[in-house]
Structures are given as structure tokens and as C-alpha cells.
Automatic annotation (TrEMBL):
Its cofactor is Zn(2+). It comes from Magnetospirillum aberrantis SpK. Belongs to the peptidase M15D family. This is D-alanyl-D-alanine dipeptidase. The lineage of its organism: Bacteria, Pseudomonadati, Pseudomonadota, Alphaproteobacteria, Rhodospirillales. The record marks R69 as: Transition state stabilizer. Zn(2+) binds at H96, D103, H164. GO terms for biological process: cell wall organization; proteolysis. Keywords: Cell wall biogenesis/degradation, Dipeptidase, Hydrolase, Metal-binding, Metalloprotease, Protease, Zinc. Pfam families: Peptidase_M15. InterPro entries: A_A_dipeptidase, Zn_M74/Hedgehog-like. It catalyses: D-alanyl-D-alanine + H2O = 2 D-alanine. The keyword Metal-binding applies. One of its GO terms (molecular function) is metallopeptidase activity.
Amino acid sequence: MHPLVPVAAEDFAVDLCLSYATADNFTGRPVYGPDAGCFLHAEAAAALTRAVELARPLGLRFKIFDAFRPAEAQWILWNHTPDPEFLADPRQGSAHSFGVAVDLTLTEAESGRELDMGTAFDAFTPRSHHGRLDIPPEAQRNRALLLGVMVAAGWEYNPHEWWHYQLPEARSRYVLLSDAVLGERGMLPPLSGRERGTI
């Protein structure tokens, strides 16, 4: 039995916008299949629930761009853009591929409007780093708000990506997972091994 649980929008009170299931990502094409679901390790799912509970009284809601990312998908991203500042080398494993990382932003619960974070998701630029002074003050406040809620809920942040949070000690506490663990609910479309890369 694999440790992943589905993160359904209605069950977790979040919005799902899986960027890698569309062409609206830095590769310019879908990486996941069109019916890809959102999954997290059970411990990460519990931490997400805690974050949702902390954000709700503030009138805020989460929009999730990515969660579990099969190891094969990490190879696809790395083969397209092997940038260690923003992508984990798949030979070491991404926290996403352990099922304990989530890429997300905050929205206004009532209107659904995304809070300004200064850059778009997956903007591979130094302006995506935490602690930047060259973004508007409102975006600085919004990043600090996201950071505070997520850290208070038990997540740790990535200094290079305002959108990325993961559980502590990911590589030592969890197991690297491939798409095969999901069986028929797998996230990747049928691809050759050469297209996927090598785990």
C-alpha cells in the first residue's frame, strides 16, 4: 500500500490548478495526463489541512499548482531545464517525488483572487527568492503571510521559491516514488522510457 492520499478540492477546501497537467508551464507542454490528480503523502496531507485551518479565519484559501510529482516527471522537467537553483536534480530526488512537497499560493476566499506574490509561479528568476526587496511591498507582505501560515502548520520553505513548501527531512524520512505507485490512477500519459528519462 503506497502512502499517498488524494487531495480533492472539496475535501481539503482548496483550489486545484495543476500547471503540469496543462501546457501552461515552463516546458510549454503538458507533463501530466489531462486527468492527473493531486496527491500527497498522508503526513503532508495532514499538514496541509492544518495550513487550511490557519488560513480560513484570515479569509484566505490555497490554490495548489503541484504536489506529488512522480520521479519520471522530475526527469522530464530536469531534461528540459537542468537548473539546480529551481529544480532538484532527479538523481537526488525532489521532495515532490517523495510526496511531501506542495507548490501553492494564497487567494481571497470570497472572490478567488490570487494574492500578488511579485512573480508568477515557476518564474525562474532571483525575484522569486524569499526576502526580496525589489518586489512591491504588498507582494512582500503576501509572501510573508504565506510563509507564516505554512511554517506554523509544520512546513519548511525553499529560499529560492516563494511557492514551494515541504516537510522537514524529506530525503531521510521518506521514499522516492514513481508513477507506478498510483496504478491506474497514474499521473503521466503513456510515454516511452526514453521520453520519460531514467529513474
